[in-house]
Each structure stands twice: as C-alpha cells, then as structure tokens.
Design a protein that fits this description.
The complex is a heterodimer.
Chain A: E1 7-11, H1 15-27, E2 31-35, H2 38-44, E3 51-55, H3 64-73, E4 80-84, H4 89-97, E5 102-105, H5 110-142, H6 146-156, H7 161-168, H8 172-185, H9 191-201
Parallel strand pairs in A: 1-2, 1-3, 3-4, 4-5
Helix pairs in contact in A: 6-8, 7-8
Chain B: H1 3-28, H2 33-57, H3 61-70, H4 72-90, H5 95-114, E1 121-132, E2 136-145, H6 151-173, H7 176-203, H8 213-274, H9 276-302, H10 308-336, E3 344-346, H11 348-365, E4 369-374, E5 381-383, H12 385-403, E6 413-420, E7 424-431, H13 459-469, E8 474-478, E9 484-491
Parallel strand pairs in B: 4-6
Antiparallel strand pairs in B: 1-2, 3-5, 6-7, 7-9, 8-9
Helix pairs in contact in B: 1-2, 1-8, 2-3, 2-4, 2-8, 4-5, 4-6, 5-6, 6-7, 7-8, 9-10, 9-11, 11-12, 12-13
Classes of the chains: A alpha/beta, B alpha+beta.
Chain lengths: 209, 498
C-alpha cells in the first residue's frame, strides 16, 4: 500500500485554476486527480489512496470547509491544504483547528504550494505507516485464543504466574505454556516488549494518559 | 422741376413704404389686423396725395371736377380704416360715433356723385393760378360751393369726436401704455381738425395754399405707425426676456438632471463597493491561474526533455486568462463610468448574464445559488445598458440579502425569470426570504426607506426612477409561499430611431 505513488487531489470549481494548479504539480512530478466540486470528490475519489488534498474554500453548494467536516466525519486521514482566493483570519483559524495542515492564498507561489504538499504527503505517509503497524499488531492479537487473551491481560498488569494460576483456577505450568504461546504469536521476546505492544493496542492504558 | 412735384410723390412713396411694411407684418401674423387697417389707411392717403398733385398741376376744369368727385372714395376708405384701427387695436371708441362718422362719409360720397359737379362745388368757374412759397404756381379751383359741402366737414368732426372719445376712455384706464395712446389720439384729432379747417378755407377762396388734406393725414399715419412699431418692439423685448427665462429654466433642469445622474452614479458605486471583495476574488482567479501556469512552464523548460506541446498549451491558457481578467476590468470600468444616459438596443437576457458574471463570486461566497429561466422569445428593448445593469444588480443583491441568513440550501436560492407579458419584456427576481411587511410593499420605493442597518434607502428609489425613465414599471409583490418578488417591465423596441 505504501509503495504506490501518493496522489494530490485538487478540488476547485474554477476550471482554469484547477487546470493550472494540476499542471504546476505535474511539472513538479506529483501525480494528481482533479475534481470540480466537493460532491464530485466525495463520489469519485479513492479513499484508500495516499497523498493529500488541495481544496478551494468558496464553491457553490458544498464549500471547502463543509467538505473538510464531512471527511473528518468519515475518519479520513487525507491531509488538507486550503487554497483560497479571499481567505480571512477567522476562516483560516477554523480550517486549521479542524485539522488542515496548511492555508494558502491565491495566487500561490509554486515553492510554497509544493513544499506544503511535500509536508502533507510525508505526514500522511507517517500516519499511514503507524496505522498499518497497528493494524498488523491487531491482526497478531486476533490470533490469540480467549484463554491466552485472559492470561495476557494478567501478565501485563504485572502479576506472577502463580498468582494468575490461582485467579484462573489452574496450575502454574499451564499458565507458563499459555504465556509462551502468546509471546510467540505476538512475536515478542521480552515482557517489556509485550507491555509496550499492549499499550499501543490499548489493552492497558499508557502511564502518561 | 418745382418742389410740389417732388414733395407730394415723395410723401406718397414714404406712405406706401410704411403701408407695405405693415402689410408684410400682417401677412406674417394674420391675427394682428391693426397692421392691415393701417396699410389700407396709408394706401388711401397715398392715392389722395396723388390726386391732389394732379389737381394742383391741372389746367382742365373737367379733369379737376372729376378728381374732386372721386377724391371722396379714398377718403371713405381712410375713414373706415382709421375707425377699424381704433376699435380693433385699442379696443376703445363708442360704436355709434363710429357708425355716424362712417355714414356721414358714405353720404358725402353719394352726394359727391349726385349733387353739383362734386361735393365741393356746384360749378367750378375757373382755375386760379396762384403763386405760393418758393415762386411756385399751382391751380386752385374757384366757383360756386355745393350747398351740401358741410357734410364733408361734419363727417370729419364725427371722426374727431370718435377719436377724442376713444382717447378719453384710454386716458381713464390710467396705465402708461393707455396714456401714451391717448396722447397719440389727441394729436390725430388735432391734425384731422386742422385739415378740415384748412380745406374749408381753401375751397371758399379765403386763403391761397396747396391742398393739404393728404399732408395733414401724414402725422396721423406716423402716429399710428409709431404705435404699431412700439408694440412690435415691445414684443421683441418680451421675447428676449422670455428667451432668457427659458434658458435659465433649461439650465436649472440641466443642473437637476446632472445631480440626478450623480446620485444614480453614487448609488451604483456604493453597490459595487459592497461587491468589491467578491470582485477582487473574481479578478484573483485568472491571476492565480496565470501565475501557476507560468511557473509550471518555467519548471517544464528546466527539465531535460522539454515538452513543447505542454508549454504551448500553457502559453495559450495564459493568454486566455489574461483576457478574462481584462474583460472583468472592462466590465467594471463600464459600470463605474460616470456617463449620461445612452440609449441602445438591448437584449435583456444578455444584460442579466452580464450582471450574473459580476455577482457570481459574491453569491458563491454567501452560499446563494441563482436559478435563471430566461425566455428566448423576448424582443429587444431600448435602454441604457449600464442603468439596466444597475437595476438588476440592486434587485439581485437585495434578494441575496433576503436569503443569505437562511439555513437550508433550498431557501438560499434566488430566481430570475425573463418573459414577454404581451405588452412588454418582464423581468422577475424572486427570493425565498421573509418577504416584505404588507404596509411597506410600496414604501420600499420611497427615498430613505430602508430595512437594512447600513443601508441608505436610495437603491430602490433610484431603480424606480431609472425604470420610469425607460417608460417601464417597477413593483414588488410577496410570493404565495414565502419571500418576495420584484418585477420590472421594459417596452419592446418599436422601430423608431433611438
């Protein structure tokens, strides 16, 4: 997934601006996809693709800020760069608060736009990598039997095998076997690694939270 | 050559010139009959002076008899003309005195043909050659006086009484003009009496002098002519004053028109001021496209394998976008220009499209959409493009204000319709807002009436003035469901020159 080239999605209702920005990004070597309205973007874009979104604010029917909200509601991770002709401070504050990575005004200088896009794509890739790692861990966790999950939660809460056996009404040897199995399935070699992974998976809460 | 032969024809000629002048005036202004009567009187006097001259130079008794008989005809003409002049021009003089003078003169004419050799003499016995001033000799008839001779002087007295009576009436009117006329009449009467007295003395042979009837009428004629000319001059003065007052009035109207134009222009500029943010955006779009295109071209040109087709496309787009920006500036310049009303043939749909281009950005920013339903079957109208744009712009922005606060997208719509209503092109601009309070439906067109906190309340008043000056109507109605509609009509171009 991360190996495919990131796409820059551009949404602008002004056809000539859309075409010109697309050309600029093509000249800088970015792959891009063009949409003339927010609705068209929602209907047609590949939600799994990596990259970023360059979004105009003032558009008929659904404007850029409304699209941003809709995407947030859909848990989209696509970083948004706003590109507007007449943006004011309240509008930019609102956009940034809602998670936009940048807020640029037209006419935009090529280097500003390109560096914003590069940053956004990097952010997106980091996020996507973190998410795919988590996904992998979750898949490993899913291979555990219910008994092994039970043992895991006791182990990471710092209990000894003997205590666990007592609580689960079994012998210490059985717990040792479960413990060896779950560490193999989760591909960890030490208790410390197991605790760290459990934290990321949300089995135990982080001490910082 | 003797002086009588020179003076009498000169007198006749000058009187005829005066007659001709007043005849021309009468011909140009037929209602001024006084000029006609003057011309007739003058003609009569001229004929009389001719007859007098012949008598004074004659050596034949039958010729003198004949001339003295016929002399009463021009006298009658002069009588009637003077009486008519006084009656019509001064509107004075007793009618019975007028008739008496006339009848006596007619009677004199009849007697001249029926009794004696003429009214003056029963018989002319000889023509006496008399030496007068300057060594001249003239013929003077001598003989037995006609017993009816007195009728002539009597008719003269009747005329004098008529004229004096008229001048007394005028004097009592008291105005400067009336008094001036009364004095002139007094002079006329004096000269008439003088001529009668002189005539009697000559005919009875008591004095030897040329016949002076025609000469004594001369001052009378000059007085009459002076009075008429005074009136002509007075009219010219009045006309001049009228001209000045008309020029002043035209200037005032022009000033008012200029002020009205300035106010209309101010309202238009204010309207565009409200749109300035959106217009800047509208202009920003092509600039943004130009910059990105140009920088893309620079990057393509820096690459190893230059794609010239791409660069060519980019340059074409830059040209197109530049024209787009210029077009917006041109449209703005047109509508901001301070110009007088210039009528031209207009397709209302095209004007609507032009205005939509101006407000597009503003509507987009405020989240308002426009539904236009423009009929293709509308005739062209005559109008000022900029003024009609101003009306449309004003009505659209009002509609936009009415719906801008609405929550649902359905409500944030304005509709524009054009259609032919059978007599005129009708444009309707409807919104889905809260409508107008029914008491205010007509008041919204009054100056300084406004429902907007920052409004001046002049927009709709000016719109109505503009539409009325195009011979159309502008009115408002509340819609059945919600919101209000503004309608205006413009009559179709009827083919007359603009």
């Amino acid at each position: 997934m991360t190996t495919s080239k990131p796409t820059v999605f551009i949404v602008d209702d002004d056809a000539s601006v859309l075409k010109a920005v697309a050309r600029l990004l093509r000249s800088a070597g970015f792959k891009n996809a063009l949409f003339s309205s927010a609705q068209q973007f929602l209907d047609e874009h590949d939600s799994n693709a990596s990259g970023c979104l360059v979004l105009d604010v003032a558009m008929p029917k659904m404007n850029g800020l409304a699209l941003q909200q809709t995407l947030a509601a859909q848990n989209s991770e696509l970083p948004i760069i706003f590109l507007t002709g007449n943006g004011d401070i309240p509008m930019s504050v609102r956009a940034i608060k809602q998670g936009a990575v940048d807020f640029l005004t037209k006419p935009v200088n090529d280097s500003d736009l390109i560096s914003a896009i590069q940053n956004a794509i990097e952010t997106n890739q980091t996020t996507r990598q973190a998410r795919s790692k988590l996904h992998e861990l979750q898949q490993r966790l899913a291979t555990l039997t219910p008994r092994e999950r039970e043992v895991l939660s006791h182990v990471v809460s710092g209990k000894k095998n003997k205590q666990i056996a007592l609580e689960l009404g079994t012998v210490e040897k059985t717990i040792k076997v479960h413990r060896a199995h779950l560490m193999a399935k989760l591909q960890v070699r030490s208790l410390a690694e197991l605790v760290k992974m459990s934290e990321r998976l949300g089995i135990i809460s982080s001490p910082l939270e | 050559m003797n002086w009588i032969t020179i003076v009498w024809p000169m007198m006749a000629a000058s009187i005829l010139t005066l007659a001709l002048l007043h005849l021309v005036v009468w011909f140009k202004q037929r209602q001024q009959v006084a000029h006609l009567f003057f011309a007739i009187a003058a003609l009569g006097v001229a004929v009389m002076s001719g007859m007098e001259l012949i008598v004074m130079r004659s050596v034949s008794i039958p010729q003198v008899v004949l001339l003295m008989r016929w002399l009463h005809l021009p006298l009658l003409v002069v009588w009637i003309a003077i009486i008519c002049y006084v009656r019509y021009y001064f509107n004075a003089g007793r009618l019975w005195l007028a008739w008496t003078a006339c009848y006596l003169r007619i009677f004199a004419l009849i007697l001249s043909f029926t009794t004696g050799q003429n009214l003056f003499f029963s018989e002319i016995t000889h023509l006496k050659q008399v030496a007068i001033f300057g060594g001249e000799t003239i013929s003077i008839a001598q003989g037995v006086l006609n017993p009816w001779y007195i009728v002539g002087p009597l008719s003269m007295v009747a005329l004098v009484v008529f004229v004096v009576d008229a001048s007394i009436t005028l004097w009592h009117q008291g105005s400067d003009t009336a008094r001036r006329r009364a004095i002139i009449f007094g002079c006329i009467a004096f000269f008439l009496l003088a001529s009668v007295g002189h005539g009697v003395l000559v005919h009875t042979g008591l004095i030897h002098s040329p016949y002076l009837v025609s000469i004594s009428f001369m001052p009378t004629l000059f007085a009459m002519s002076y009075e008429l000319s005074y009136d002509v001059l007075h009219s010219a003065k009045l006309a001049e004053r009228l001209q000045i007052s008309i020029i002043k009035r035209e200037q005032a109207e022009l000033d008012m028109q200029t002020q009205r134009n300035a106010l209309t222009h101010l309202s238009r500029v204010t309207l565009l001021g409200e749109l300035s943010g959106s217009l800047a955006h509208e202009l920003n779009q092509p600039l943004a496209a130009i910059l990105s295109n140009a920088q893309a071209a620079q990057r393509f040109l820096a690459q190893e394998n230059i794609n010239l087709d791409e660069v060519r496309d980019i340059l074409q787009d830059i040209v197109d976008e530049d024209k787009r920006a210029a077009d917006i500036i041109q449209r703005l310049r047109l509508i901001l220009k301070k110009a007088d009303c210039q009528l031209q043939l207009l397709n209302v749909n095209e004007v609507v499209q032009d205005v939509l281009k101006l407000v597009r950005s503003d509507l987009k920013n405020r989240g308002v959409t426009v539904n236009s339903n423009l009929s293709n079957n509308i005739p062209v109208v005559t109008g000022d493009n900029v003024l009609i744009q101003q009306v449309l712009l004003n009505l659209m922005m009002n509609a936009c204000d009415a719906v801008a606060d609405a929550v649902s997208i359905e409500q944030r719509q304005i509709h524009i319709h054009t259609r032919w209503n059978g007599t005129a092109v009708q444009v309707a601009i409807s919104d889905q807002g809260t409508g107008i309070v029914s008491d205010d439906i007509e008041r919204v067109f009054e100056p300084f009436f406004t429902t907007k906190p920052q409004g001046m309340g002049l927009g709709l008043a000016i719109c109505r003035t503009i539409i009325h000056s195009h011979k159309g109507q502008l009115w408002a109605e509340n819609n059945n469901e919600c919101g209000a509609s503004f309608y205006f009509t413009l009559p179709a171009y009827s083919g007359e020159t603009i």
